[in-house]
């Protein structure tokens, strides 16, 4: 049987970002240094494949600190936690490692600075996302107003419109966020923003890479988890950039091949918490059905790496 021709446009950068790499390393190094089990509050990153691999090595994932024995290490996820969480761990005398992405920590510091300066804060982000919960939990209740979309930006009513600042979740759509910020600046000319965009470089780079391939593709497949904000944004970016079919899949076994019938150009990217092994798995599955040619489309190279906590570096 002659297999149909398929050109795969492979977006680059894709997959693991520096913050995700660091978070996974923290769990692995903690297991090596302190033995099994090491507890992790919430998913270390939003990817079940990664979580399952760490579970196999001895990590135990829990929802809250009261599920953790006080004599075992606990790691806080890459998304960050409200300040009440490390305070509760300290009150119990627990040893904890904070795997919060340094770029999320930067947003935490911004929120605290604005609160200390007497400003009310508008946070642009998605309700219930762990990063948003953690960031809003850096300051007292009521200090932060959450804005999820353009309509809410038009209607939000801060108590101190002349003493106002905005911060953002790091994994948002760059284009959507620009529109929301423009609306807030129009309504509140005195609003203060970050010195540098809160959306992280990895999110921006992956969105730019998808924009570069989407107009040339019959379909774009983003490999990532359904609870991964940055992965879902990549699907939206592909659709907005002109690709007629944009899909989110966790791994090859989930692919609906019927939806890809008749395609000639397939774009592939991966969310920042999706390992490259899942990309390879999808490409191998494509090769079973198509005569595949791969074209890598790179928009930039990422060289940033984040340091591990000092406790893991000391003897």
Which key terms come to mind for this protein?
single chain; 315 residues; alpha/beta; Cobalt-precorrin-4 Transmethylase, domain 1; Rossmann fold; 3 domains; five-stranded parallel sheet; four-stranded parallel sheet; 37% helix
Describe what this molecule looks like in 3D:
This protein has 3 domains: 5-16 and 201-298, Cobalt-precorrin-4 Transmethylase, domain 1 (3-Layer(aba) Sandwich), CATH 3.40.1010; 18-101, Rossmann fold (3-Layer(aba) Sandwich); 103-187, Cobalt-precorrin-4 Transmethylase, domain 1, CATH 3.40.1010.20. Helices cover 37% and strands 19% of the residues. It has helices at 18-34, 48-57, 84-91, 102-116, 130-136, 150-155, 174-187, 201-213, 229-240, 276-287, 310-313; strands at 5-12, 38-41, 59-62, 74-76, 96-98, 120-124, 144-147, 164-168, 219-223, 246-249, 265-270, 291-298. β6, α5 and β7 form a beta-alpha-beta unit.
Task: Present the secondary structure layout.
Blueprint: E1 5-12, H1 18-34, E2 38-41, H2 48-57, E3 59-62, E4 74-76, H3 84-91, E5 96-98, H4 102-116, E6 120-124, H5 130-136, E7 144-147, H6 150-155, E8 164-168, H7 174-187, H8 201-213, E9 219-223, H9 229-240, E10 246-249, E11 265-270, H10 276-287, E12 291-298, H11 310-313
Parallel strand pairs: 1-11, 1-12, 2-3, 2-4, 4-5, 6-7, 6-8, 9-10, 9-11
Helix pairs in contact: 4-5, 8-9
